[in-house]
Structures are given as C-alpha cells and as structure tokens.
Amino acid sequence: MGPDRGTQEPADAHRPLTEIVDGDTTWRFDDAFLTSRWTCIWGRGCLGILDEPAPVLGQGCCSVGAELDGVDEAMRISALADTLEPGRFQFHAEAAAGGVFADDSRTATRVVDHACIFLNRPGFAGGAGCALHLAALDADESTLDFKPSVCWQLPVKVDWADDGAGGEVATVRAWRRTDWGPEGETMAWCCTEGDLAYVGDRPVVESLGEELETLVGTPVYLELRRRLTD
Prior knowledge:
Blueprint: E1 17-22, E2 25-30, H1 31-34, H2 71-83, H3 92-98, E3 111-112, E4 115-116, E5 119-120, E6 129-130, H4 131-138, H5 149-153, E7 156-162, E8 168-174, H6 204-207, H7 209-216, H8 218-229
Parallel strand pairs: 2-8
Antiparallel strand pairs: 1-2, 3-4, 5-6, 7-8
Helix pairs in contact: 7-8
C-alpha cells in the first residue's frame, strides 16, 4: 500500500485566519494548523521524503542537504561545525576532509551517504539525529541558534506578498506537499498531511512557540497566543 497522501487543506481554502497588524506587516495565521496537535514524529514513524516510505532510515526531511539563508548563516554553520566532537558527529572525518557544504557557493549543506552530513544515523553511539541539534542540547542552548533556519522552521511556511499600499502581508501556515515542487508529487512525506503527525499533547501555537516567536517577533507572537488559547 502506498503512503497516505492526506487530506489537510491549504491555508487559503476558506480556513479561519487570525490577522495581526504590526507596522507595515499584516500577519495572517492559519488557525486550524496552529491550534492542531501536530508534532514532529522524527524517529517515531516519520515516512521521510524519499519516493517510498522509509521510517527505518530515520532520515526525516534530512535526505537532502539544508539550503542556507545567505552568507551569515553559512559562516555560522561552518563555525559551529568546527566545534563538533567526533563522538557526537558521525561524519566528522568526512567534514574535516571535504567540508560541510555541497560546493564552493556554500548555499547548502553537503550530502554524505544519501543524507545531510550533519545527520547521525540510527545506531550511532553518539546519538541519532542532527549533530548540530545534539550539540545545542549538550550546551544547554537553543537549537534554533545551532541549526540552519530552514531546519527549525519546518513545518511552518511563511508566504510574503505586497499589500498594494506599501506594506506586506505575511501568511503563516503549514508546509504542504506542493511547496516541495515537482518532487513533492512522488515523495512519501506525511508530516502535515494525513493524520500520522497529529498526535501532540499541545497545540502548535504552544509547542512551536519558540519557533513562531523567532519568526514573527515577541509582541505579535504573544498576541497570537492570547487569541488562540483564550
């Protein structure tokens, strides 16, 4: 049987939106997703993003290298990679020999053994999962400060548009299959689609509070949380 393609609707399909104006930016939030019980199920049955379901590989959405958000982020990731210990970073030797970037443009992390170089595989003695994420936990620091921004933003997507009056409209919603482009048509990805990942114990507005606050700013986040949890 093939993967469940899911029934989650896009944020613009007549779903309720919470709107908060912050200066020149009008934020619009998909209430249904932010009040849902979505949670990351990496290592707990996540199907991954290959063409066939592969939960046993433990790759999640790390089967491809992470795209980096500019020069500053690339420099930060490079500096953090230099601090990783071999016992916590499975591909430490590969990183030392060939670097952590896909090429000299430094716009994406390198793929080694069919997944991101920073992904420790199941069974690795230092712990499975992102080596950067593990390093942040070891240092008692926010994982958002250690990982590429695209990694901690998923599954949240922000669509930016001109409002026609000199400002911008930012719609915050769940990432969906079509956002992956043509590859999304065949991948086994479940994440925000179907019901596999809707097993959390808190609404997304709370469980992804740090991520949302970083994306939209503290005042907007606090107002959003007040409206969706009151």
